Amino acid sequence: ERQLEEAREEAAGKIQSLEAELEEQKEAEAAAQRSVQEGKDEAAKLEKELEALRERAAAEASGADARSAALQEELDKKQAEAAEALAEAQADSERRQRDSEEQRSSLERQLEEARQEAA
After folding, report:
1. Which residue stretches does the UniProt record annotate as biased composition, category Low complexity (predicted)?
2. Domains of the chain: which residue ranges?
3. pLDDT tens track for 63-83
């Protein structure tokens, strides 16, 4: 009976530990989502800047070819930055999502095993 009680206590401790790890994983997942959102926000900001540059380029193009060329270069640079930021955010999001899902799945399996052992 004493061994059974010790086994139950050990199983309960393992379950508590796994539940804490699962909670930490959920928090990490939420942080990853916030990071992805920040990346998307940055990409949206760059897109707005890009649109403003397009408008400026269009307004100034008729009177100043040299200034228009410089603005076009800046526009192209901002467009490339926006595309890169979005691609990075998406890649990071996908990587974090996979990592998070794998970790959560592992923790859930461990938790289920611990619960079965405790039963």
Report:
1. 59-70
2. 2-118
3. 667 777 788 899 899 899 888
CB 89 within 8 Å of CB 33? no
Place of tokens 């040299």: 66
Residue 40's identity, in one-letter code, is: K
What pTM was estimated for this model as a whole? 0.49
**Average of per-residue pLDDT across 20-38:** 92
Using a CB cutoff of 8 Å and minimum separation of 24, what contacts does 12-21 make? 12/118, 14/114, 14/117, 14/118, 15/111, 15/114, 15/115, 15/118, 18/107, 18/110, 18/111, 18/114, 19/111, 21/107
Structural tokens at position 116: 């079965």
